[in-house]
Model the fold of this input.
Amino acid sequence: MSTSKLLYAAGVTAFSLFLVAAVGAQQPQQPRDGEQIMNASCGSCHEGPVIQTAAKDEAAWKATIEGMIQKGAKVAEADKPLLLTYLVRTHGPMPDGPGKDVILNTCTICHDLTRIKRSRHTAEEWEDTLVAMLNEGAPLSDDDFPVVLAYLSKNFGVKE
Ligand code: HEC
Ligand code: HEC
Done:
């Protein structure tokens, strides 16, 4: 292929990519939020709570989004920042330690982790919250209760 043909082919490709991006960005009739983008782009392959039980920082979520696009997820270029912000806000990193896995798996069944993260409680208050969650139906076992309580009091406690 001659150089000019190659340049032409590159130009056509760039233009169609531009079109795809432009159409992709225009498609939604109303502005969409990150949750809607997630449901549309991520819901097709994930039946289980793969996203809900994840807790990643911005760099890790960015890599996950690109990895999922490699696997076939469709995310319009223009939607990426909103999706990333949403994932980091609702499924952001949690401190490591015993109890973290239980929290990721049982406390995300009804709500995301922002409720936990914005709370600062004494150990007694956390105990009350956990009892309230048990009453709501949270499947927190007797063995896990003290572990989760210690985790929450340590990481989301009240500064003395
Ligand atoms: C075309 C199918 C498909 C779509 C669409 C898809 N995924 Fe995945 N995803 C997979 C597969 C397959 C795995 C398991 C293999 C693996 O872990 O890499 C996975 C695993 C994951 C995991 C667990 C592993 C990890 O990296 O933490 C997360 C989190 C995740 N996906 C997030 C997302 C998000 C966010 C989206 C939307 C942007 C998405 N997925 C869309 C196929 C998909
Ligand atoms: C079965 C559903 C369910 C599960 C599972 C669940 N919650 Fe909740 N959670 C709720 C509901 C409903 C509310 C709102 C109730 C209210 O505001 O009175 C709530 C509210 C909260 C709040 C904010 C209110 C407060 O008292 O500060 C925190 C924090 C919380 N949950 C933590 C947790 C933790 C930690 C877990 C895991 C051990 C958990 N939740 C599991 C249903 C659940």
